[in-house]
């Protein structure tokens, strides 16, 4: 198959950190244009909006959307309606209904929609899923604690409605949990902690249950300084499985397993190419559904105000 001509939209942190390097290595895609209001990519055509990009370059067959979730639906809907294949950064949208709408649009226009979950491509995730298939699982403990100032410098959208707050990274853990567990889980309790000046939580504690009495607990926090923690520990009758560093490392009963090098975004673009050539879509909203359940069912706690750059007096 000739490389698919692709336009990249929303040139910010993740576009530069991951999408551009992966696209430069991909033989499946030819990055021909970018659309971003305040940024551009050297060496290709640049536009201020997706509309202008698709108007000027009808040869673009696919777009990959890297903007924050609140701005994604309108652009995705426009691209799908114009017959373009669409890849969405995680989370796939600000609401479940808009994601469902996009899935319907992709089907009716005969194009591929890929709601990507990059953490599912972490090297430990596939082997963890395979190992857990044969085990009786008792308990899962997720600890996802990172420093929002380090990973999301100045990104005020993250604390706006639809930005998900601490669930922006926490949904990565949920995307792994929903991939590796061989059974469904449902939320039974949650507490969400909101800074008094923000619309989205800075920390969350979640409890889920599984059909065999399995307990799944998750502690998410955006206020972690020093070492960062992205761990999932699964206790089973056959031993304890630990995924750490966001799924990059896997150990069984403390013994580290040999892993392929990290290549999450290369994996995502390979999957997007596969979907396009098979004429299929891949839209699994389950991680976003668990987050929506936490907003529906969680208790609310309020904590001190949060500022990316604390005023000098603080
Ligand atoms: P970002 O740098 O703040 O945003 C990306 C770009 O989107 C912005 O630079 C902006 O470029 C454009 N944009 C379009 N509409 C916007 C709006 N309404 N508000 C703000 N920016 C808007 O964010 P990011 O870290 O790249 O994250 C974007 C998405 O990638 C999120 O869904 C996030 O969960 C996901 N992600 C992020 C990371 C990470 O490490 N940061 C990792 C994996 C996934 P213009 O102003 O030029 O239009």
Topology:
Elements: E1 4-9, H1 13-25, E2 29-35, E3 45-47, H2 50-56, E4 62-65, H3 72-81, E5 85-88, H4 96-109, E6 113-115, H5 125-132, E7 137-145, H6 148-151, H7 167-180, E8 186-195, E9 203-209, E10 215-221, E11 229-236, E12 239-244, E13 249-252, E14 255-256, H8 264-278, H9 286-297, E15 299-303
Parallel strand pairs: 1-2, 1-4, 2-3, 4-5, 5-6, 7-10, 8-15
Antiparallel strand pairs: 7-11, 8-9, 9-10, 11-12, 12-13, 13-14
Helix pairs in contact: 3-4, 7-9
Bound molecules: NADP nicotinamide-adenine-dinucleotide phosphate.
Residues 10-15, 36-39, 66-71, 89-90, 118, 151-152, 155, 157, 168 line the site of NADP nicotinamide-adenine-dinucleotide phosphate (NAP).
Detailed description of the structure:
31% of the residues lie in helices and 27% in strands. Helix 3 packs parallel to helix 4 (96-109). It has 314 residues and is α/β, with parallel strands linked by helices. The chain is globular and about 55 Å long. The strands form two sheets. A nine-stranded mixed β-sheet has the order 14-13-12-11-7-10-9-8-15. Strands 3-2-1-4-5-6 form a six-stranded parallel β-sheet, with helices on both faces. The chain has helices at residues 13-25, 50-56, 72-81, 96-109, 125-132, 148-151, 167-180, 264-278, 286-297; strands at residues 4-9, 29-35, 45-47, 62-65, 85-88, 113-115, 137-145, 186-195, 203-209, 215-221, 229-236, 239-244, 249-252, 255-256, 299-303. It folds into two domains: 4-115, NAD(P)-binding Rossmann-like Domain (Rossmann fold), CATH 3.40.50.720; 119-259 and 292-303, Dihydrodipicolinate Reductase, domain 2 (2-Layer Sandwich). A hairpin with a 5-residue loop joins strand 9 and strand 10 (215-221). The longest helix has 15 residues, at 264-278. GO terms for molecular function: nucleotide binding. It holds the Pfam family GFO_IDH_MocA. Residues 5-114 form the Gfo/Idh/MocA-like oxidoreductase N-terminal domain.
